Amino acid sequence: MSVPSTTRPTDDLSRLLQVRQVYAEPAALASRRGQQVLGRFPGAEVVEVPSHWEIPELHGNEGNVERWVRVKSETLVLGVKKSLTARPNGRSANWIAPSTANGCAMACAYCYVPRQKGYANPITVFTNIEQITGYLRRHVARQGPKTEPDQCDPQAWVYDLGENSDCSVDALVSDNVADLVATFAELPTAKASFATKYVNRQLLELDPRGRTRIRFSVMPEDDARVLDIRTSRVAERIAAVDDFVEAGYEVHLNLSPVVLREGWEADWAQLLRRLDDELSPRPRRRRRPRSSCSPTTGTCTRSTSGGTRRPRSCSGGRTCSSPSAARTAAGTCATATTSSAPGSPGCRNSSRRMRRGCASGMPSEFVST
Questions:
Q1: Mean pLDDT, the chain, whole residue set
Q2: I want to staple 97 with a disulfide (CB 3.0 to 4.6 A). Which of 44, 108, 159, 312 is the partner?
């Protein structure tokens, strides 16, 4: 496990978080990791609560909707993760790992993370990191080697770490993410994976050894200015790709969400040309769309381990481009990316996120390793 530090990346942390109040379960407060978090916010008031889910003045206070971003900025919650399970996924990851945090300091307009947190969505840090990493080691060992490639990875079992948070931001608050990266660096049959819209360059100081996959989400700047609130700029995410590859991470780009509006095709074409121009040859050499949609049949297809394609149906009267056109018009389908407002047209699949409402057009995932 990493050694807890009370030092903090002042500029990054203070821009997103000016924590005034920390709600904490007693066990979390007494833990080594809980004390580390408090050490990074020495002036915060600590309020003990029986459960990180039972904070009526936080999650049950309808007035917090008007203070949505302020609550994210000024409040943290410390809890103990009770249920340790890895759920099957099968899209961008084989398994969803037990959360080490939920909530986010950013405020993207189409975020699905607050769906279970009532009227407030600050970061909750789970402090029993040793139990979580121990569980993951045992779970990976039970799987044995991956014998057949799949769309998640040809050789490794992939575990999504950030279903309910952004791990790049979580790493500013505690060493949980550093501990997870160190854990997977020692697991030759598994990889960690998380999507992010925040460039945390402190992660470059870790040693992932190719076992952690970072998926930077990108979109045209005009869309990002409206939808990506309090995130790193798209240009900063693109500029970070080469550095993270050099540091030993596997880097993917999630092209999402694709918003159908006047000029969207031209803006996405410009973004894709920009990726070609700005990424060095090493990140670009294995770029590929994970799945594609047919403009003639209205059917989305996804590559399988045998090289054939498995169809899935599209809805909403939307058409997607073929793979050959993916670089000039962003019309490829997502295998596991965030969705936009409920009711938007998009592809149907078994993902709860996608059922809640797809992006207005289908994003794709490109690979940089």
A1: 79
A2: 159
117: phi then psi, degrees, rounded to nearest 5? -115, 15
Handedness of CA 186, 78, 58, 54 (dihedral sign): positive
**Other CB atoms within 10 A of residue 359 CB:** 25
Phi-psi bin for 267: left (phi > 0), alpha (psi -120 to 50), beta? alpha
State the chain's maximal CA–CA distance in angstroms: 60
Given a contact cutoff of 8 angstroms between Cβ atoms, the answer to whether 157 and 213 are in contact is: no
Q: Give the DSSP H/E element, type plus range, for residue 58.
A: helix 56-59
Tell me, what's the pLDDT at 118? 81
CA distance 113 to 196: 13
Q: How far is the C-alpha of 16 from the C-alpha of 9, rounded, in Å?
A: 11
pLDDT > 90? residue 59:
no
Q: Both tokens of residue 85? A: 């399970």
Question: SS3 of 96, please?
Answer: strand
Q: How many CB atoms lie within 10 A of CB 344?
A: 18
Q: Count the helices and strands in the chain (H runs, E runs).
A: 13, 15
Cβ neighbours of residue 96 closer than 8 Å, sequence gap 6 or more: 86, 87, 88, 89, 159, 160, 163
The tens digit of pLDDT for each residue in 281-331 reads 876 555 444 443 343 334 333 333 333 333 333 333 333 333 333 333 333
Quickly count: other Cβ atoms within 10 Å of residue 343's Cβ: 11
CA 325 to chain centre: 27
Tokens matching residue 73: 């900025």
Q: Which residue has the tokens 């279903």?
A: 163
Rg (CA), the chain: 20
Which element (helix H / strand E) includes 29? helix 26-30
Supply angle C-alpha 17, 231, 293, rounded to 5.
Answer: 145
Nearest 5 degrees, angle CA 214-CA 221-CA 290?
40
User: What digits encode the pLDDT tens for the residues 79-128?
Assistant: 999 999 999 998 999 999 999 999 999 999 888 777 677 888 899 999 99
DSSP string, 239-297: HHHHHHHHTT-EEEEEE------TTHHHHHHHHHHHHHHHS-HHHHTT---SEEE-TTT
